[in-house]
Design brief:
Serine Threonine Protein Phosphatase 5, Tetratricopeptide repeat, Mito/Outer_Membr_Metalloprot, 25 helices, Peptidase M48, mainly alpha, Peptidase_M48, protease, metalloprotease, about 475 residues, globular
Amino acid sequence: MSTSAERRLGEKIARELYRDPDYIDDPVLVEYVRAIWEPLLQAARSRGELTSELDERFAWQVLLGKDRSVNAFALPGGWLGLHLGLVSVTTTRDELASVLAHELSHVTQRHISRLVNQEKRQAPLMIAAMILGALAARKNSDAANAVLSGSQAVAVQNQLNFSREMEREADRVGYGVLTQAGFDPAGFVSMFEKLQQASRLNDSGAYPYLRTHPMTTERSADLQARLQLTSRERTDVSSPAALEHALMAARARVLSSGGVDGQRALLSEAASLQAGAPSLRRAAALYAGSLAASRMRDTGLAVTYAQRLLDEQREVPAAARQARLLLAEVSLAGGRTERALTLLDAVSRSRPELLLRAQARLASGGASEVAQLLQSWVATQPRDAMAWQVLAAAYHSQGQTLRAVRAEAEAQVALLDYAAAVDRLKAAQDLMRRGAASGDHIEASIIDTRTRQVESLLREQALER
């Protein structure tokens, strides 16, 4: 399979994943995962595993899913899926990095292309449907039946499972990428042992990663041998990095616990904290308790827990930043807009701060400021669908309907939904014909140009069917 064909196939699948109710664009977790993912990509480039052709043609994007199952998966074209359930069971960033390095190596070694090539007699659309059906089967066998019959789903699942040789190669290459990127290789072994233990004790289907990446004694021994040969200082479990990871794992646990019972359990854990509880456990419980309380609409309790966390972590910059972001988030969710704004750095250009501040200023009547802020952002980050959506809301608040509709279209382009984008652009052109663009000739010109460009993408998409 050529790299171009694999890229197109990956975009088909990514387009459906964006539509999946489990897809989540959480700026805090996306930023955290990206900070782990980028060094791995750079290490793969340095080692020659990631060629310039693949680097240029493939997406290299990690999509988060709020599914509670412990799963991660590589897809054609450099797309990766990561369930929050997996993030929530990791103890260190090194463990999470080990999974990402392993999945990255499946892509750079063209394992997915080889598996898909086994079905080269099928049309690309059918192959995409088969992969989506297999992913659905890993999450929910009933959901899979909406895409494939049960027998087909089992057959496709078997076809898409990586061979033992591929797994060992991804272990070997991934281990090298992980260490070159500066992560503790012990994370590879500890994550492997955690999954291996789960494979022995858990048969409930909560660990679908085990079915596609079978844990074997041979693989475990190989990794242990590699670790013995690697001289590197072990990660301190009480380090600032470990503390920040504990907060991110807690966030993943809350966001993947959709039901009321799950949120109540997290609140109970925070409420039962003992004074002498270990610092990591205490910080994670306060973080989870605050976010869970906010989701249960108890703003007072959410703010109390977040403030306690911030007070306890002021001397640890990374943890203090996450606590401050949490306090701003729960304050804004509870209508305490001014409090949220005082907690956010007005000059920060990190995505979580920027989007939270934009939402807070929008809620407090600062639509014009938000529009200026996000115009600059999307000029350099055109694939940021959430930023386009907030920008659209800012334009609507100012009565700039034409610009708002165009921003809505750009959000759909970022999500690869070209049909929806064309619909919005056509709506904008209709507004122009009715005189809504009076005086805004530059915007009208942009809309005409973008309509032609996105229609071209839509035609290409249709031809691939």
